[in-house]
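2024-03-11 09:14:02 INFO worker-7 job=invfold-0412 stage=load source=structure_tokens
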């Protein structure tokens, strides 16, 4: 099969489109014939060696949507031909024609959701969902400040927060301002020309996808007992106690039930998957360069194969 692999860490030119053996699923796993693969910032961070010196060569990419192709031992809830989406294992990767997923972490793709849209959900969608609801406990009528509101995680977060009934303030710039507003943000602050800490006061939650100075300036916008949740690590955790607020950094985890909930919201029209760029698998270098620029609005997807007629099961409750 064809896959995008790296044999050493570095710039985007280390990405190689090459032949590799087809993977075989182990116990509790299944092989997927990939139709679409999502591109996330973590992909190029892995490529640069920023997440540690992982075993090489490796196939990049985590988010995939496709058709079940082969079942490993002890997989009973899926059949070959089922349309699914989820996160590939680090061992096999998602920028490829086939990959392996752990069956317990996979969600069924609704009939009305395209493979391209499904591939946009796992990493960004789960990160936003878990940050807002599992970590910060965002509730209706609370106020949330979302940094990077036009990005992959931020864009999902804006929509989830509005669906929940929260007041949503975002930060963005340029075309991202209109994009974030189109997703439902009540107010969008241009971070290049405005100081958000001079505008936002008594927020219940801050979602920080930026870190650094942005995080440092965010403590003061929270009300007493408020919550800052960050996807990029807490740089000054002692500041939470000093400001009388709570804070946590976290990495998302794969949860098939939450993937199913997000897909249902998309099908019902409450959330849009925000796919703004679709490229062929062979253009993985271009896709990662776009992601690495930091100015991408929405999601970049690699189309690995054309969307076929497919057999899908009913979504799990």
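2024-03-11 09:14:09 INFO worker-7 stage=emit residues=317
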């Amino acid at each position: 099969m064809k896959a995008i692999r790296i044999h050493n860490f570095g710039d985007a030119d280390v990405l190689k489109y090459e032949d590799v053996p087809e993977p075989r699923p182990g116990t509790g796993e299944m092989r997927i014939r990939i139709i679409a693969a999502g591109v996330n910032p973590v992909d190029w961070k892995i490529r640069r060696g920023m997440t540690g010196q992982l075993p090489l060569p490796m196939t990049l990419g985590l988010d995939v949507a496709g058709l079940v192709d082969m079942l490993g031992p002890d997989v009973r809830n899926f059949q070959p031909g089922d349309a699914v989406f989820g996160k590939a294992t680090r061992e096999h990767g998602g920028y490829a024609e086939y990959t392996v997923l752990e069956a317990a972490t996979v969600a069924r793709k609704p009939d009305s959701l395209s493979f391209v849209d499904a591939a946009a959900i796992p990493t960004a969608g789960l990160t936003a969902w878990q940050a807002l609801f599992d970590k910060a406990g965002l509730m209706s009528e609370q106020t949330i400040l979302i940094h990077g509101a036009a990005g992959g995680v931020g864009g999902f977060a804006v929509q989830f927060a509005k669906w929940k009934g929260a007041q949503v303030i975002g930060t963005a710039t340029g075309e991202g301002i209109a994009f974030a507003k189109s997703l439902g943000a009540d107010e969008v602050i241009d971070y290049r020309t405005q100081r958000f800490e001079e505008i936002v006061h008594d927020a219940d939650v801050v979602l920080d996808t930026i870190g650094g100075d942005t995080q440092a300036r965010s403590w003061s916008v929270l009300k007493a007992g408020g919550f800052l949740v960050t996807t990029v690590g807490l740089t000054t955790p002692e500041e939470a106690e000093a400001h009388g607020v709570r804070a946590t950094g976290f990495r998302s985890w794969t949860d098939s039930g939450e993937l199913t909930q997000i897909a249902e919201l998309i099908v019902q029209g409450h959330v849009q998957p925000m796919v703004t760029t679709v490229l062929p698998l062979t253009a993985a270098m271009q896709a990662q360069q776009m992601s690495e620029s930091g100015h991408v609005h929405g999601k970049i997807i690699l189309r690995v194969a054309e969307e076929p007629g497919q057999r899908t099961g009913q979504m799990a409750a």
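2024-03-11 09:14:09 INFO worker-7 stage=report msg="DSSP finds nine helices and 16 strands in the chain."
2024-03-11 09:14:10 INFO worker-7 job finished
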